[in-house]
Amino acid sequence: MQTRLRIGTRGSALALKQTDEFITALASAEGWHLHEAEGRVEIVPIKTTGDTIQDRSLADIGGKGLFAKEIEEALLTGRIDCAVHSLKDMPSFLPNELAIVCHLERADPRDALVSPKAASLSELPHGAVVGTSSVRRQAILLNQRRDLVIINFRGNVDTRLRKLAEGQADATVLALAGLKRLGAEAHARHIFSPEEMLPSVAQGVIAIEVRAGDARVRDRVAAIDHKATGTAASLERAFLQELDGSCKTPLAGLAAWHGSALRFRGAALSLDGRQRFDVARDASVNSRTDAEAIGRDAAQELLRRAGRSFFAV
Length: 313
What we know:
Distance between the termini: 52 Å
Low-confidence stretches: none
Shape: globular
Largest sheet: 5 strands, mixed
CATH superfamily of the largest domain: Periplasmic binding protein-like II
Number of strands: 13
């Protein structure tokens, strides 16, 4: 039997569901049953700074990378062998000693409106309060409805649903993938098309991170990489890396397959939603290197049009 794999993850219900997806995929590829999991894998929940600090927006405390910091430290010190992440919560650049070597097949990347008062954005009353911790969602919402009042809404999915039920906001926006994984899809009153609300880069993608020099774990995990998802995610992350926007710069991007071609749509907005720059690419892709080049090229177009200062707020 192989050495037991120690898997690091956040301890939220959603993170543990994502970890279960990884273990299920690993078991299927390696030919063992889930009832054998206790002897083959060990789940190591890790509390991150992003989980601990709930009274401030992510942008104010250092960005979404704070959901990965302590987990990456556990990888670097050898406390765990691999880590399960929501790729959209990963920092743009990884430590040199770490690598993402596996992407599970992408779940639905779209966003969903959750509200006890409206079945669509247009149905929300004038001056409605919308809770979100995402600068991207805030900017896109204000781009369409400048009358909305946006408040900081931190916490896991259950916490945000509870806050909504308590009347702290009239609506919130959540990732549809997370709602589905938790069996809470019924809370979605409206599912935004990408044209209505362009998703976050890598939304819906579960990524597995390992120590780059650990060939044993790297090869084992890489064997279950979903190539199409990994290629699309590589394009999106190259777009993000090239822009190198601050954590306060609202950015969005989605690459979707159409046959052998990837159709990419990206956007950068001002925080108040008054300025928006969009970019599009449609190109045949034969490798992740091709995909990354397309993402960088799209980002360079935005930089030319918006100016570097737009991304350094």
